[in-house]
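Hey,
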Amino acid sequence: MSSIADTVPEIGSIEPNQHGYRSFTLGSFGFTRDEYFAHVTWPKGHHMLPADAFLRALQRDIAWGFFYGTVNFDAVVGTLNHYGSVDLFAGRFNEHYRKAGLDHNERFTTAMIQRVFEAILEDWTNAAFDPFASPAETGSAFGPKNGSNKEAITRHRVTARRMVAAPGDEPVRTDENGFPVNRHFRDVPQDKPQVLAEPGFEDEVVSFNLFAYLSRSDVTWNPSVVSVCKASLYCPTTEEYILPVIHGNDRVEWFVQLSDEIQWEVEDRETGALRARVTMRAGDVAAMPADIRHRGFSPKRSMLLVWENASPELPALYASGKMPPTPVQF
């Protein structure tokens, strides 16, 4: 079996730079980092991102399998998922870069870009830094290379086949399996629902306390799949500080605010022009259209239910105009 260490010499420098970090290439893109910044180069340009922001975005892009649609690391670089291949771009969804002719785009197999991104993440993440954690719950990403944190960057992502707590499926979170209640959710009741199944149906009727489950989440801005009904996925998550990516939709995405508050900046997917600022408080429901991109800001750790329709035909239907980008036309 190949390991990341075995593959690094193929895709990155063998010797580290003066800061202790390796450099990597993917097609005509180059990736280097110093003590504070990640540097991305392409034939037409060069871009800098703070190292912590780059690693948080990179972590989610990998963990989400490049997600639905576009994952903008910031206003310049990011990825576009074609479900089998992935575009890596610079300036493609930035009107100013396109007008100046500085945009660049290359397509790679999903396996190739995943392998390079995993190697960058492993080499550039220091021992004290957890890209999935909130800023108040992790150490610094900055400075010269100082160890690694493979345990954090390869942590298990919850993807239930039927539903959390179902026999043989994802377990509920407890103190005993390493998930204490988060500091912001100590007032969340931890009681369990009572299930009285008819004899013979004990393994088919399952229930769990979703609020208690989310109160024990150890990551932020990372949706888990807790229940599945064909292509309908319930993907709740806990949010604190800023969503590390600007997600460009390729389908309608439903948000149900379960607790506290998130402010969303909603932009045009292609140009980045601001469309709206949406403040969601507990009980609010919003449908994010298929032709936007959005970034969330959560002043206090909050709970959000993201409802995804994973039907594979949706991106082509929206792109061709056969389906409107919104579920309701006013």
